Amino acid sequence: IPFNPSAACTLPRMERKEIKPLEESTIADFLGALEKKRFQNLFLVTLFTGMREGEILGLTWGCVDFEQGTVTVSQQLQKEKNGDYYFISPKSGKKRVIVPAPFVMKVLQNEKHKQTANRLKAGSVWNNPPNLVFTDEIGKNLVPRTIIKHFKRIACEIGIPEARFHDLRHTYAVTSLQEGDDIKTVQENLGHATAAFTLDVYGHVTEKMKTESAARMEAFIKNCKGSIKGSNSA
């Protein structure tokens, strides 16, 4: 045909869903509510690494390096289409290596001790061929809907019933930026393809970041003015 009939069409504006990270006070409430909960360690690692649901559920001990203090994210737990079978699948794109806070590595060590105790208790019933980090009491993979159900229960307990499990990832990203991490580091930790995408999602400036920026600029101005006075007196 001599022309493209769709050329005259006006494409609808793409609107990105508003992200809803946990507020600082809510994070404290969440951590308090996690005490002695069944999936406490899983929620803690998710909150302080920003891993996706499939990534945290598909994490294996071979990807955790306690000596170097790193976690390699290279695979994910996936469900078979039109079935109930779960399997470990390599992630699309390149793998990433996270250097979590020492607190996170301690949480993983606690989980390893807990899993060892469960394995000894389960005996021959233990079944964890992939060597998953987070399993049930007999070594089987955790089901996403179970994790979400427990998360929702905690969210309701602290007064944020609308919160989603994925909001833990958003919370990690926003908190990292607020605490001064550069956008490239945040991008690599989250596993985004480009820093531009990370900026597009999380680049909005919070009131805290504005205040801190103003304070840094004020210190810079005072330092410059002090240097001028010093040179004039000399």
Quick structural summary:
It contains nine helices and five strands; from the N terminus they run H-H-H-E-E-E-E-E-H-H-H-H-H-H. It is mostly helical and 234 residues long.
Question: How would you describe this protein?
Answer:
- With 234 residues, the chain is mostly helical.
- The protein is built from nine helices and five strands; from the N terminus they run αααβββββαααααα.
- The strands form two sheets. It has a three-stranded antiparallel beta sheet with strand order 1-2-5, with no helix packed on it. Strands 3-4 form a two-stranded antiparallel sheet.
- The longest helix is centred in the last third of the chain and has 27 residues, at 207-233.
- It is globular, with a radius of gyration of 23 Å.
- The N and C termini lie far apart (80 Å).
